[in-house]
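hey all, quick one before standup. I had two proteins in the batch that finished overnight and I want to keep them in one place so we stop losing track of which output belongs to which input. First protein below, input sequence then structure tokens straight from the run.
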Amino acid sequence: MRRHGRLIRGIQWAIVLFYAVLVVLPAFLPLPDDEARILDNLSLFAQFLFWGIWWPFVLLSMVLVGRVWCGVFCPEGALSEAVSRHGRGRGIPRWVRWGGWPCTAFVITTVYGQLVSVYQYPQAALLVLGGSTVAAVAVGYMYGRGKRVWCRHLCPVSGVFGLLARLAPLHFRVDRARWEARTGGIVALPNCAPLIDIRRMEGGSACHMCGRCSGQRDAVSLALRAPGLEIAVNGQRAATGWDTALLLFGLIGVAMGAFHWSASPWFVTLRVAAADWLIEHGGLWMLADNAPWWLLTHYPQNHDSFSWLDGALITGYILGTALLVGGALYALCVAATRGLGRPAARHHLALAYVPLGGCGVFLGLSMTTLTLLRHEGLALPWVDAARAALLAGAVGWSLWLAWRSSAAHSASLPRRLAALLTIAVGAALIAGGWGLLFFVW
């Protein structure tokens, strides 16, 4: 990868062009009618590629090969880095380096995407994806010199990718002793675009897997490891409160609420009750569906428009789900670590839920894939069994990580078993939440 940097850059720019065409052009075409098909309508084709193939399998790639997507394929990263070489080159301000941006940006982007129906309409996709790209270019122009400041600190999915990459069996391993000994290899420091201190790198959470540091001082090499080892072994040193917040309240809680609300009978009941109350108390303006499309979904030609009440309820439902689910999971992590006699280990044990968080979002995004394929007339009788198998596998992986992680905090078998059972309650809660969506509603 280090030797073929020019080829990688060529791939990046080809993807930038492909990305631009599929994001921009459909937004200026008429909305597809009921007879349109994926292969004869550019809007449906772009929708299928972005939300049916692109994003679900980008998430899967993080679990399999780490953040290769970020370092080799991501159009926003390539643009931000390229622009930063010719930009103003300012130092990175403190507000950009705030550790809460990955969590905050993920929550805001997810909620806003639901309000404008980003999965369904090309105009909304251009607004969300194109807006993110413009922001990445602007940050690249202002800050850093040949660096990916946007990717490191502000990208809405960077934090999620960092969590999932901890599961990957493939990573760049750094031999610290050999690095310090300076015995050979390439000595000139490479341009590490995501701003990593390569010498001290212990895992793949922040590494973009671009290969630029491969062979550095004969101390950096591509290597295999047990899946999830970075969580079980390094998690006690690397886990932070923001990781916990992003995982429990964002990747699990917000995502569950975002995919739930459109199918939830609870949401329907709440909406009817709220509408009746507004009618009785003179709040009819909340029932109007006159918001612009860039604020709330407004496509009357498709009989699809959100009222102001819908917007408030969708936001409340997603954030309420996040608080309830995330709060319950956090309480269980605290209880488990108190049982271990190490309350400070709650962030480490919380990382055990990463497989379930990733699985839930993958299955949620794949709903678009399956909906479009069924619209094409494809019968998919195996879907429910596959979903159940993936959820069961994620539960097992999470419990295995919790068991391995508990060993770093206690040698007592009863204490570790009690902690495992507590974490298992949370795993059942997550699997049950997705089970409602896929098998009950």
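OK second protein, same deal, sequence then tokens:
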Amino acid sequence: MLKRFLLGTCCAVVIGLTLNGCNSSKGEYKEVLKDPELYHASVKKLTDIIVHDIFSPPVASRIYVYPNIAAYEVLVNQYPDYQSLAGQLNGLGEAPKPDPAKEMDLHLASIHAFLTVGKALIFSEDKMDVFRNKLYNKIQETDIPSDVFDNSIEYGETMAKHIMDWVALDNYKQSRSFPKYTVMDNPDYWKPTPPDYMEGIEPHWMKIRTLVLDSCNQFVPKPPTPYDMAKTSQFYKELMEVYETGINLTEEQTDIAKFWDCNPYVSHHKGHAMFATKKITPGGHWVGITAIATKQTNSNFMETSEAYTMVTIGLFDGFISCWDEKWRSILIRPETVINQFVDEDWVPLLQTPPFPEYTSGHSVISNAAASVLTKLYGEKFSYQDTTEMEYGLEPRSFDSFFGASEEAAISRLYGGIHYMPAITEGITQGRQVGSWVLDNVKTRKGSLSEAKKED
């Protein structure tokens, strides 16, 4: 039996790893390194840094997906029932193969590729360095031969470079210099919202290269309800639904809205003082659900990598599809209209995010992720979502991933930040993205059941 102990980081975050120390029996390092807890710990560290660095939801989806693809591309060399994503993802060429003359551990190589690509995409590189160094020091305390360790790191580095060369062509760097959105006077167009009146986030995100979608506008939803403040209009009815729901929230609706808030930066104003609360992004929440599902099913290292990779691909393309519509329709948020025409003192339960209303990002990306997880783990999958506990929220239980995604979607009405069409059309848009990803990306050479084998 391998002894489990806790490895702490400088931030007092503890990670459970099956590392045994210097008294390992010969060859035991192989068992240590194929424990998926190594992968989970690396993903959790990336999430913690994303929260610390306050990346916006679309940018966070980019930070999540590329490290997972890098790790996956390493691992397919050891798991013959799985296949490369080269030629399946837009612009991704054939990956370098491990040198058969060099003995290495591809689980370790995959972790190194993950951490190297992840470090290249964040701000707080020092935090990743501290985590990686502590992790590698513990691994080197096992019986792993030095040449195996070095060869594994070398191949992980090679794969990371291959992925980063591809990443460099996704138009992200160029988009950093694109012009900011200029607020327009049109009454139906989005305006910055209280309390900070922040500028619109990522108005050019639709120009980022998609991974699987043919284009950012492959799944354009029907247009939002036309802006019309006549009290008999459909828009006014939808507006009043947000207002009336907000002033008559039940305890359950309040709990649901807060659970799915996932706003990475919420500002608080007390007199002349202002402070902010950092939280997980909506994509990060679904990465957390992926961790729960893989652990609950005792998924092996490869299955764990597959799940993270496919879910984050769905999240990434989901954000591009959603942001394409947001900055096409540029629809005004309920808070702005309600304050102007209905109740100047009304404040939504949740802080309104700084970008246009239609469609609902939560609805799109949650249903894209749920589509992937349902394919991997089945339509009936009961689990307890503990993702938000570290942010002070009680866990919630679900009988399916789609049940969770639908609750995430309706939470935006309860939170007072979306009209219903953004939610219903967002659900459709997200499932279209998820289905397209599943139809066009094949990780396994056979069926799911045929590919589920022991390491």
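Flagging for whoever picks this up: The chain has a mean pLDDT of 93. The chain has 16 helices and six strands.
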